[in-house]
């Protein structure tokens, strides 16, 4: 079978598969169930970073410089950690500002500056097209290896017989089909992203397949390969880390790749422009490094294995991946591997072309066209096709240029070295972008200066030497410096030597880039537009909601003009709908013929998404009459929106304070209501208690009054009762008043030194009549020593009287009441005992309450308690002591109170 | 008293019932109120039993069923409500008329008394004439 046909068919079949995947993705999108709205797909699309360089070039590198090949994968891994803070900010900015390329990002940030956009676009073209060309070269070379062709055609002698030509043509067709479907560049290239993710999977699987084949098929595992490698003289050297140069190169390469993984146009395209959801970044942070790890896992084994088996033959190490399976009987595997490499190369070509063609058409072609033709607005969708065609033309141009470069120039360079040069080129954008999104004072002039000088030095130190080695440039410049000035020698600028050329280029270009960027920014004036854009970009998370409301546009514009302008590119229906929806959402009246500035802003933004911000500006200004904004006006607008946010914050704070105050008020209210209730309860209780003696007095008085024929002694009994109860009543009233005094704290203790002995003796004396009436014996047991206490004698007397009268009341006939004093650690204990019926345990605390326990309102306290004990408790409390009862039913009671020591 | 138990039932009932018409049990823990109420009931021709607390009252009820119960509510051991509850839930005793006599004058307390089946709720302090009249009416 003709190998050629098989290979071609395979490649075309694979491309067809890509078409299929892309179509399917777009079909799913129409159904509303997007398949790319998925963090894993997003992370896989980032793997477009791995091109034919990874596939072929890294194996080649590994066999010559060993582990250092990993440097360009370590960089992105480190950068992944910064995805969430940095990339997310960029995504937010680009979504809200409808930015869809690096050129747009830089130009809009620095005041919608057109020249910056052009410079960036040119730099991208110069830096990346060679890289695209190298991918094409890789495809053709790998194809030739499979076919067995020994000659690689150079020059344009046999285009139609050249496989690469057909591949390039099909690729261009694919890109045009899926990359220019509709006019609004803000729409997602759903099919494209799906295809790229698919390709990432294919290339990973294919590479791992070869890896396993080599490691376990041709050798006996990792151990085997590495031990054999260690024994090989050439390979042995690669295991060691040599001196300083290596560290510098490592650092340089890592830094370079860190920047490249963000600023390469294809990376910017997939990671920022094609991002559908910010949260996908979170998956990417670990999935992407994991992918890099997996795909580089087998590089060393393949490199070593290849060298061990094929090193003597002098075959280019880049090709080990294909040759090893091919020469060891695994033809199908080699075909699969070829597809993997093909996949890697094509994904790079597709995405880079889209990215660069967008920049080209937006920033160079369209403006030129518009200005040159002096466009008058024509009507419904008239310009849509023109714009699309410009895009398609750009794509063709890029592919064509890459093809030419491949045929005429690329043979002289290695895949890796061109790749590095591209990395260094896009690294020049880093200061302007990173500075732009974090430093408000970064100015357009600074960015321009930095990028230009970086570009120049990059060209001088990286491109010129390689051109010299191929004869395009006079070699004497390299050897002696321009005009013989030796310290301007391109490979060792300012005398710096000892670095590899890429690190050297990177170092000097970045040095001057950053230096000029900062210096010029600090000393240059900024326009109103710049200041505004700086504010929005740096504080995007604060403003992303508010930007709609802040409009930086002053001038006259008419609604019909605006409408027809948009209609030119979007079609009548769509343009109208967009304007109406926007006006409704922001409550702008469309009655007036004069367009609200916000509408103008919006129109410019929408248009910018279609034809690039620069062209959009041109178009909008062609139908409006703009007035120049002064810096104060800008600052005012910004200040206003800041004030709004401050106000908002204040409002929220105040309302939470109000809430707190309300809560406090409610609590206090509840407290007061409680206290009110308690007061009411107390009043009710007291009046209730007073009713009892009043009842008996009334009843008895009525009886005596109504029954004049009552017997004399019975009459006397009743009258005595009236007197008794009257006394009781007044006693009760006094008690209540006293208790109130103690409770409210009005009672002041009149502390003096009191002789306890005499106090007790007096109290017992006063109770004697009552005791004698019942035949009760009284006893006083006080040790002879004098007891001086600090207390209020009247109050303590009250306590003693109360306790003694209770004791006498409860003691049986001929019973015993005794008072004793005991010394204690804390003070004195005074005991009042009786041998009455005792108090059950449940009531022993209850009796010190007023009248009755709050819980059970119908259980009255044991007879005779009244308020007396409550008052005693209060008095003892005031003295800082304690009072309680020890008692058992039918075994008498012992009331104890303590007075603290002096 | 025991003789009545040997009479044939109708006569027994008549005698007992006639006797019961005039029996009144007065329960209050205040001695003076008890004294006054005892005098009043006796003066008006009723056979008076007195009890100083709930337990005593329940014991007396077991021995002789009164026609009317004059109940204080606030008492140290068993309160008046509980006594009423027990009486009204007993087949034997639920015919007894219960009159509450209490210093608890809240609307809720009065309502509770009537809910438990009291025939009358009198607030303290009371008028002796009023009370006697009301009791006479109840026992007619």
Blueprint of the fold:
The complex is a heterodimer of chains A (902) and B (140).
Chain A: H1 3-30, H2 39-46, H3 52-65, H4 71-81, H5 83-97, H6 102-109, H7 114-147, H8 163-179, H9 190-218, H10 222-231, H11 233-237, H12 244-263, H13 265-273, H14 280-296, H15 299-310, H16 320-327, H17 331-373, H18 382-408, H19 415-427, H20 429-438, H21 444-469, H22 475-480, H23 501-523, H24 528-538, H25 540-543, E1 555-557, H26 559-570, H27 572-585, H28 597-611, H29 613-623, E2 624-626, H30 631-706, H31 712-744, E3 752-755, H32 756-774, E4 777-781, E5 788-791, H33 793-810, E6 816-823, E7 827-834, H34 868-878, E8 883-887, E9 893-900
Helix pairs in contact in A: 1-8, 1-9, 1-17, 2-9, 2-14, 3-15, 3-17, 4-12, 4-14, 5-14, 6-7, 7-8, 7-17, 7-18, 7-19, 7-21, 8-17, 8-18, 9-15, 9-17, 10-15, 12-13, 12-19, 12-23, 13-17, 16-17, 17-18, 17-29, 18-26, 19-23, 21-23, 24-30, 26-27, 28-29, 30-31, 31-34, 32-33, 33-34
Chain B: H1 9-21, E1 23-27, H2 31-43, E2 47-51, H3 54-63, E3 68-71, H4 80-88, E4 97-102, H5 107-115, E5 120-123, H6 128-138
Parallel strand pairs in B: 1-2, 1-3, 3-4, 4-5
Class based on secondary structure composition and strand pairing of chain B: alpha/beta
**For this entry, what is the oligomeric state of its chains?**
heterodimer
Task: Report the average pLDDT across residues of chain B.
Answer: 85
Largest sheet of chain B: 5 strands, parallel
Put simply, the count of helices of chain A is 34
Element string of chain B (H = helix, E = strand): HEHEHEHEHEH
- How far is the N terminus from the C terminus of chain B? 24 Å
Low-confidence stretches of chain A: 853-857
Please summarize the sheet with the most strands of chain A.
5 strands, mixed
What spatial form of chain A do the alpha-carbon principal axes imply? elongated
Tell me the Rg of chain B in angstroms. 15 Å
Instruction: Give the chain pair forming the largest contact, with residue counts.
Output: A-B, 27 and 28 residues
Instruction: Tell me the radius of gyration of chain A.
Output: 50 Å
Q: What is the β-strand count of chain A?
A: 9
Query: How much of the polypeptide of chain A forms β-strand, as a percent range?
Result: 5-15%
């Amino acid at each position: 079978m003709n190998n050629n046909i098989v290979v071609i068919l395979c490649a075309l079949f694979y491309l067809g598969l890509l078409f299929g995947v892309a179509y399917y993705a777009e079909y799913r999108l129409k159904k509303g169930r997007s398949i790319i709205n998925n963090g894993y797909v997003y992370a896989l699309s980032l793997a477009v970073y791995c091109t034919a360089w990874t596939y072929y070039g890294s194996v080649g590198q590994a066999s010559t410089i060993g582990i250092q090949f990993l440097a360009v994968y370590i960089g992105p891994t480190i950068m992944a950690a910064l995805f969430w803070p940095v990339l997310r900010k960029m995504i937010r900015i680009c979504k809200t500002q409808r930015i869809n390329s690096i050129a747009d990002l830089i130009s809009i940030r620095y005041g919608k500056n057109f020249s910056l956009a052009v410079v960036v676009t040119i730099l991208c073209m110069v830096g990346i097209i060679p890289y695209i060309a190298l991918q094409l070269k890789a495809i053709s070379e790998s194809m030739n290896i499979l076919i067995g062709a020994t000659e690689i055609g150079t020059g344009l002698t046999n285009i139609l017989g050249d496989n690469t030509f057909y591949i390039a043509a099909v690729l261009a067709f694919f890109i045009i089909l899926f990359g220019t479907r509709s006019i609004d560049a803000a729409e997602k290239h759903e099919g494209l992203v799906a295809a790229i993710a698919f390709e990432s999977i294919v290339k990973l699987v294919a590479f791992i397949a070869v890896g396993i084949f080599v490691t376990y098929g041709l050798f006996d595992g990792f151990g085997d390969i590495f031990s054999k490698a260690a024994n090989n003289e050439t390979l042995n050297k690669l295991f060691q880390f040599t001196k300083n140069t290596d560290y510098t190169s490592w650092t340089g390469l890592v830094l370079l790749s860190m920047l490249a993984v963000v600023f390469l146009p294809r990376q910017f395209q997939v990671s920022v422009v094609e991002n559908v959801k910010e949260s996908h970044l979170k998956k990417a942070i670990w999935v992407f490094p994991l992918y890099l790890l997996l795909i580089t896992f087998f590089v060393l084994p393949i490199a070593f294995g290849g060298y061990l088996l094929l090193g003597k033959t002098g075959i280019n190490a880049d090709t080990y991946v294909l040759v090893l399976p091919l020469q060891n009987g695994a033809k199908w595997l080699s075909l699969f591997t070829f597809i993997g490499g093909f996949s890697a190369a094509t994904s790079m070509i597709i995405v880079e072309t889209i990215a660069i063609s967008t920049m080209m058409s937006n920033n160079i072609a369209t403006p030129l066209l518009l200005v040159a033709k002096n466009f008058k607005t024509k009507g419904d969708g008239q310009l849509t096709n023109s714009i699309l065609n410009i895009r398609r033309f750009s794509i063709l141009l890029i592919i064509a240029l890459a093809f030419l470069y491949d045929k005429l120039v690329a043979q002289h360079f290695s895949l890796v070295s061109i790749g590095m040069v591209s990395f260094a080129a896009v690294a020049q954008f880093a200061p302007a972008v990173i500075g732009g999104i974090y430093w408000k004072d970064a100015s357009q002039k600074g960015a321009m200066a930095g990028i230009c000088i970086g570009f120049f030095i990059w060209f001088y130190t990286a491109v010129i030497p390689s051109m010299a080695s191929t004869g395009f440039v006079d070699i004497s410049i390299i050897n002696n410096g321009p005009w013989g000035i030796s310290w301007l020698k391109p490979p060792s600028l300012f005398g710096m030597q000892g670095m590899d050329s890429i690190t050297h280029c990177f170092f000097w270009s970045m040095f001057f880039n950053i230096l000029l960027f900062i210096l010029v920014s600090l000393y240059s004036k900024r326009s109103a537009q710049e200041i505004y854009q700086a504010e929005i970009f740096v504080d995007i998370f604060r403003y992303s909601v508010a930007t709609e409301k802040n409009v930086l546009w002053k001038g006259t514009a008419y609604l019909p003009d605006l409408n027809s302008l948009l209609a030119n590119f979007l079609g009548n229906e769509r343009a109208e709908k967009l304007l109406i929806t926007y006006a409704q959402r922001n409550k702008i009246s469309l009655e007036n013929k004069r367009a609200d500035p916000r509408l103008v802003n919006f129109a410019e933004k929408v248009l910018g998404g279609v034809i690039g911000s620069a062209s959009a500006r041109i178009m909008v200004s062609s139908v409006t009459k703009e007035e120049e904004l002064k810096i104060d006006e800008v600052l005012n607008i910004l200040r206003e929106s800041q004030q709004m946010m401050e106000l908002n914050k204040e409002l929220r704070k105040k309302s939470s304070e109000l809430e707190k105050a309300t809560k406090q008020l409610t609590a206090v209210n509840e407290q007061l209501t409680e206290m009110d209730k308690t007061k009411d309860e107390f009043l009710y209780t007291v009046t209730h208690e007073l009713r009892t003696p009043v009842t008996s007095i009334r009843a008895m008085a009525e009886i005596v009054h109504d029954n004049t024929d009552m017997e004399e002694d019975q009459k006397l009994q009743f009258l005595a009762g009236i007197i008794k109860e009257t006394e009781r009543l007044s006693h009760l009233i006094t008690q209540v008043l006293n208790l109130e005094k103690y409770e409210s704290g009005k009672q002041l203790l009149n502390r003096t030194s009191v002789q306890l002995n005499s106090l007790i003796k007096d109290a017992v004396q006063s109770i004697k009549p009552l005791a004698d009436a019942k035949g009760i014996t009284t006893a006083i047991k006080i040790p002879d020593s004098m007891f001086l206490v600090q207390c209020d004698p009247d109050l303590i007397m009250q306590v003693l009287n109360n306790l003694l009268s209770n004791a006498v009341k409860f003691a049986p006939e001929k019973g015993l009441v005794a008072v004793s004093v005991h010394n204690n650690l804390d003070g004195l204990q005074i005991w009042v005992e009786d041998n009455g019926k005792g108090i059950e345990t449940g009531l022993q605390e209850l009796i010190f309450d007023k009248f009755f326990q709050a819980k059970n309102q119908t259980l009255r306290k044991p007879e005779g308690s009244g308020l007396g004990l409550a008052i005693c408790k209060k008095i003892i409390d005031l003295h800082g002591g304690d009072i309680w009862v020890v008692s058992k039913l039918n075994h008498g009671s012992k009331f104890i109170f303590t007075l603290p020591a002096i | 008293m025991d003789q009545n138990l040997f009479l044939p039932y109708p006569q027994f009932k008549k005698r007992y019932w006639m006797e019961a018409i005039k029996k009144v049990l007065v329960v209050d823990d205040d001695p003076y109120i008890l004294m006054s109420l005892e005098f009043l009931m006796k003066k008006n021709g009723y056979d008076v039993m007195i009890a100083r607390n709930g337990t005593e009252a329940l014991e007396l009820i077991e021995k002789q069923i009164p026609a009317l119960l004059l109940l204080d509510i606030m008492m140290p051991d068993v309160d008046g409500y509980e006594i009423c509850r027990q009486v009204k839930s007993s087949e034997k005793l639920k015919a007894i008329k219960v009159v509450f006599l209490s210093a608890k004058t809240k609307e809720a307390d009065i309502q509770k008394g009537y809910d438990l089946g009291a025939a009358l709720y009198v607030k303290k302090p009371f008028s002796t004439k009023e009370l006697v009249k009301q009791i006479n009416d109840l026992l007619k």
